[in-house]
From TrEMBL:
Keywords linked to the UniProt accession: Aminoacyl-tRNA synthetase, ATP-binding, Ligase, Nucleotide-binding, Protein biosynthesis
Species per Swiss-Prot/TrEMBL record: Hyalella azteca (Amphipod)
Name by which UniProt lists this protein: Nondiscriminating glutamyl-tRNA synthetase EARS2, mitochondrial
Catalytic activity: tRNA(Glx) + L-glutamate + ATP = L-glutamyl-tRNA(Glx) + AMP + diphosphate; tRNA(Gln) + L-glutamate + ATP = L-glutamyl-tRNA(Gln) + AMP + diphosphate; tRNA(Glu) + L-glutamate + ATP = L-glutamyl-tRNA(Glu) + AMP + diphosphate
Enzyme Commission code(s) on record: 6.1.1.24
Pfam families tied to this protein: tRNA-synt_1c (PF00749)
Domain of life: Eukaryota
Amino acid sequence: MVTPSSENCNSYLHLGGLRTALYNYLLAKSSNGSFILRIEDTDSNRFVPGAAESLYNMLKWAQILPNEGYGIGGSRGPYVQSERRHLYQKYALELVELGSAYRCFCSPMRLEIVRKESHKTGYTAAYDNRCRWLTKAKSDELLSQGTPYCIRLKLAEVPPWQDTVYGSVYHAVQQEADPVILKTDGQATYHLANVVDDHLMGITHVVRGDEWLLSTPKHLLMYRMFDWRAPVYAHLPLLLNTDGSKLSKRQDNLRVEELRRAGHSARTLINLVLGSGFRGRDQDTIYSLDQLVDMFSLNCVTKQNAKVDMDRLSSLSQADFIRSVSDAAEKSDTVQRLQSMVREQFGDG
């Protein structure tokens, strides 16, 4: 079994990202498999300098250690998507040659007009698939003239598929606008990049947030077009605030780095996010990573959106502190951690 943690460079690691990485890690380790860390940086407009290094450091601090990947190396690299552009371009053009994708020469101005007209008529698709119907001769002519283009996937119906958490899922993806898989600047979108990376890296299981649930037919369609074997998918329900609103990456108090700085241990945060939407564990018990590996199963993941009760964080931290100072093997590390926190807060004086 091989699972990925595909971390986005558009933000720092937050509790939702920690949960996804944790589930992929536990799934791999519970099956004696491999856990790979990949960095997603295809959206250059939202790139956050230093985010990749911070993501790696926070996972390392949490002891969610990959077998290979960013910051470590390995035989399946490179592990940063911007360093794999040539691969995405190769496979995007292969889909064009197969007749499963096409070059779209529509200008930004035309696309904006189409979007506005769609909103007026109540039609949700953001593109009218105009270039899907271009003849090969016309497409070749525009290409020879140097007309900028992106590459879009030709959507088609995908039969119901099995999700490990949600069971049988069907989404009429053929009713959507054909999505861009390779942008005008030559960089891939999430859809193509993750399918190509998962295949080339031998990924067997993918655990990710359910915001990607309805995009999965697009990915399964590409696997079918390439004649590749698709991985097993498991989509995790949303993490919510206690008021029912969705956890946001913009909530700085949910950043792992900030919570660490506030004095919370990695084990506390791991137990907090695992306790949200996972059956079969005592909510008041602090489990070690090794214990969680032994008890982990995707069958224990609930379908219901899970609320993260930040008020429980203090009580979990207290329970973890009592556990750590009571354990001779952990006591020294705990004292050093407290001393480091005091120095960081008040200086060495």
